[in-house]
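Need residues for this backbone.
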């Protein structure tokens, strides 16, 4: 990783000179300062297992759809998103967030360890948690820095030139498209993805342009002089391989620095695994663009790949790992038969549940009963045209600034934040039956799920396996 900076420079600059690319949902989620837990759970003996496990959901009402447009209402007037307008893109130019001569939201930049930690006196926010967080970010920061803010082609692990020019000139020919899909999916799981699915290439989810926030924040370029380039792929994309990465349950519920670390670790896995899948494709003579939050919006791609359903809090609920997932993808010229979008009761349950919206410390999550084609608020970071609940990214991000780490209260309190066990099974069964939805949330509360706060910090550090 010693050549990360040089590679980043050549790769990204070259891209910005040569390229001209192209967002359904963007949402911020991560961890919280509020202690929402309350001790003394009488049902503590049925606290969920904390190992990484997970099965496909048991749902009597599981459905498959041919396309995302069959599963969701998407306006014909839907417009692709400019990466400049996502909340992290705004660090570099929007006076609301950009401070001349400043470094943006410093806790999310790679040199954040040099920045004083304002909450160091709070349990779970100390130097040890902070150090763990920086270590967890390392794969992302060295391999594809600022891809978390939607900036593509920034480092050795997401270098467009490299992955668009495989050394093997004659692509390996699989016996069939289905065989190619089988090998690619198995390889992705072996290389570290928690779930993998195949989406068709759909330009609607690709950013129109990207703004070089890094040159502003790290190189001191004035926002008005920073590149803001249309992006276009250096090859014809035929398929998108989508992945989920499960966040650690114990770290997430401890909140503060540990919750931040749980997100950070998956950002590193996103970077590393998408890179490795791109290498796999290159070795077979196919072109690939590995991406985390960059290049396009991950949630609709993951939906198209059959990995889950969008939720009230604006994130994907994975069928296998629930609310605790991060997403990545690889664009490739290898033709692969797409998987099908699914539903397994999440949106129907969200109508009744509202736990995330009630727990959110910045009131960033809609309390409206039904989803809508337009957000209830005005924000350039919320792209209208898809029927869903819109998260107010500006309010959410203000909470992150206050905490000095990413917040993930919503992910943690969500009833889908649980590890597979009999309670999970029981809850899902109730969720799956319309008659049971009214009581499912109460059931979830009664079983003691969704608890979070600094009382779990010691449990995290004392865990032995
Ligand atoms: S939406 Fe609310 S609860 Fe979720 S991460 Fe943002 S501030 Fe935290
Ligand atoms: S907490 Fe409830 S309303 Fe919010 S996303 Fe999870 S299931 Fe949906």
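Answer:
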């Amino acid at each position: 990783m010693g050549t990360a900076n040089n590679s980043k420079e050549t790769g990204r600059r070259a891209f910005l000179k040569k390229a001209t690319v192209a967002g359904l949902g963007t949402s911020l989620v991560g961890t919280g300062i509020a202690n929402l837990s309350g001790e003394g759970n009488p049902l503590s003996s049925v606290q969920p297992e904390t190992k990484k496990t997970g099965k496909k959901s048991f749902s009597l009402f599981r459905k498959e759809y041919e396309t995302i447009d069959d599963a969701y209402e998407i306006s014909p007037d839907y417009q692709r998103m400019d990466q400049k307008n996502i909340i992290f893109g705004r660090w570099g130019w929007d006076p609301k967030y950009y401070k001349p001569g400043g470094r943006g939201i410093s806790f999310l930049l790679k040199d954040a360890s040099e920045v004083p930690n304002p909450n160091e006196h709070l349990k779970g926010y100390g130097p040890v948690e902070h150090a763990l967080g920086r270590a967890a970010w390392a794969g992302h920061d060295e391999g594809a820095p600022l891809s978390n803010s939607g900036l593509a082609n920034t480092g050795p692990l997401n270098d467009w030139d490299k992955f668009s020019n495989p050394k093997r000139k004659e692509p390996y020919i699989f016996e069939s498209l289905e065989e190619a899909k089988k090998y690619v999916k198995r390889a992705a799981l072996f290389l570290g993805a928690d779930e993998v699915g195949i989406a068709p290439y759909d330009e609607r989810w690709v950013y129109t342009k990207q703004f070089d926030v890094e040159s502003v924040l790290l190189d001191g370029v004035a926002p008005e002089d920073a590149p803001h380039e249309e992006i276009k792929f250096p090859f014809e994309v035929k398929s998108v391989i989508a992945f989920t990465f499960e966040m650690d349950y114990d770290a997430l519920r401890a909140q503060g620095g540990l919750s931040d670390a749980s997100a950070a670790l998956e950002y590193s896995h996103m970077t590393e695994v998408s890179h490795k899948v791109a290498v796999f494709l290159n070795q077979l003579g196919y072109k690939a663009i590995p991406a985390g939050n960059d290049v396009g919006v991950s949630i609709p791609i993951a939906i198209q790949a059959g990995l889950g359903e969008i939720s009230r809090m604006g994130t994907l609920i994975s069928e296998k790992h629930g609310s605790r997932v991060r997403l990545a993808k690889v664009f490739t010229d290898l033709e692969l038969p797409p998987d099908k979008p699914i539903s397994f009761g999440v949106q129907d349950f969200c109508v009744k549940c509202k736990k995330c919206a009630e727990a959110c410390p910045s009131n960033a999550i809609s309390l409206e009963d039904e989803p809508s084609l337009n957000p209830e608020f005005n924000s350039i970071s919320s792209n209208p045209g898809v029927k869903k609940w819109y998260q107010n990214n500006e309010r959410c991000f203000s909470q992150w600034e206050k905490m000095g780490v990413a917040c993930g209260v919503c992910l943690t309190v969500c009833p889908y934040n649980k590890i597979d066990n009999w309670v999970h099974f029981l809850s899902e069964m109730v969720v799956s039956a319309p008659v049971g939805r009214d009581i499912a949330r109460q059931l979830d509360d009664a079983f003691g799920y969704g608890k979070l706060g600094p009382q779990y910090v010691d449990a995290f550090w004392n865990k032995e396996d």
